[in-house]
């Protein structure tokens, strides 16, 4: 029979093997929850999107390490000029750490626990100038918030920012003391196996702020650079592989397909 002549069988084998060994497009559903206060909301930026706009630009640029990923910002609020759903966030104006913890309950109740989920957390700025809140206890409150996130979404990468500076009164002294504690809070959890890491916002200065508290566009751009670096670090740790399509399908069927190849080869040899 023509179809089963040795050259034709070899061709079929070659095509099958090429198909099986061809690189597959793994697409990560990268869900990002920007969580915090007015700085996460984007107050003071001309776009209204703050760092979230600049970060999305970095993540979707042709030189991005996340180019093949399906990137979606999530949250109960919307602000800024990004097209929906990318304007979603959980940045509550004026919120202190404990209030952010309460607001976080809503998005954390959504289907989570997927690899590919990322939380960008920046909390504490408003705690720094509230006379009725303990400053010394602020790092503990941050830790409680991180534990809440990890308990709800154990596979998510939780990136925790140090605070950007302030020109308001003695606030900077408080921020300096708090920022010194942040790595200890975050790294203790990482040591315990939590997917937590610190993102330093030390590159932002008060000269890059519109009101001595909220970054201007340049400052928000530097914040985006810092978050991007944190995302790269999380990726290198294998924390954001995500739900994939394509590769999984091929892996799942490959045994059956190899069986077919073997049968075809044996059949051709006899
Ligand atoms: C992209 O991710 C979002 C959020 O996880 C999901 O709703 C959407 O279906 C995904 N889109 C594609 C094309 O996979
Ligand atoms: C990608 O290129 C742009 C424009 O040159 C640059 O601003 C950005 O930092 C680059 N991103 C990365 C991840 O290297
Ligand atoms: C501290 O004061 C603010 C108002 O400035 C209030 O919203 C908050 O509930 C107070 N917190 C505590 C723990 O008393
Ligand atoms: C996170 O760390 C806590 C200890 O702080 C530990 O009890 C918990 O099992 C860890 N969770 C994960 C998912 O590693
Ligand atoms: C801070 O700025 C320096 C110089 O541009 C850069 O190399 C570094 O990656 C930045 N750090 C962060 C955390 O963004």
From TrEMBL:
Keywords: Signal. Residues 1-26 form the signal peptide. Pfam families: Lipase_GDSL. Gene3D superfamilies: SGNH hydrolase. One of its GO terms (molecular function) is phosphatidylcholine lysophospholipase activity. SUPFAM superfamilies: SGNH hydrolase. InterPro entries: Ester_Hydrolysis_Enzymes, GDSL, SGNH_hydro_sf. This is Carbohydrate esterase family 3 protein. It comes from Hyaloscypha variabilis (strain UAMH 11265 / GT02V1 / F) (Meliniomyces variabilis).
